[in-house]
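Input sequence (240 aa), recorded before submission:
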Amino acid sequence: MTPAPLPAAQAPFVLLPGFMADETLWREIEPALAARAPVIHGSLREGDSIAAMARHVIASLPERCVLVGFSMGGYVAREIVRQAPERVAALVLVATSGRADSPLQAQRKTAAVKTAQAGIFRGLSPSSIRASVHVARENDAGLIDAIRQMGVRLGGDVFFRQSHLVRDSDLPTLAAFRCPTLVVAADQDRLRSLDEARELQAAIPGARLEVIADSGHMIPLEQPAALLQALTRWLDSLPR
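Predicted structure, token format:
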């Protein structure tokens, strides 16, 4: 007899970071998640496309998991659902979008690569980091340095690889998703708008939207308690 699939409320967590972020992105919420179920960090260091990154993560996935993708990691998480839907018991999309990169976003990435190529890579630029947080925390030295240090640890090779990724819109494919899905957005995100979060919610059957107050794009570091509360409240509402 085939055993019943592990319900989402009991499945391990697989955490995917975003652009030039590493596992320390989740440092504030990881202990509480680990008290509920095992925590696995998916690496986005490898792969020259969203699909290739997804294949790399799938190779190390448990049989069933709660897949949590932040920003760029949200694109990879959705591709994992398309490639291996049976492995995803539930999906959480944090500060991400279903849209393709705009011409302006592509232009900024190209300019950042050219700037980094001109010298030794020392992490993301201060201006780009400040744009990723709430305006009230632009001068929070500890937060800004924590974000920069993630990029330093990942290094220039990962920066160039991730900067050249093509992010296509996948909104038309999301109606096929069948896993419970939580979309989390920040009310002061200058990189990803609430409209983008609402598009994801509308496109994925049964998805729930939670908006985190007083946060910029870096929700897991800016408002970890609120993120954890939204995540656990939603998980507790799922069938056991």
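Checked by second reader. The chain is about 40% helix and 15% strand.
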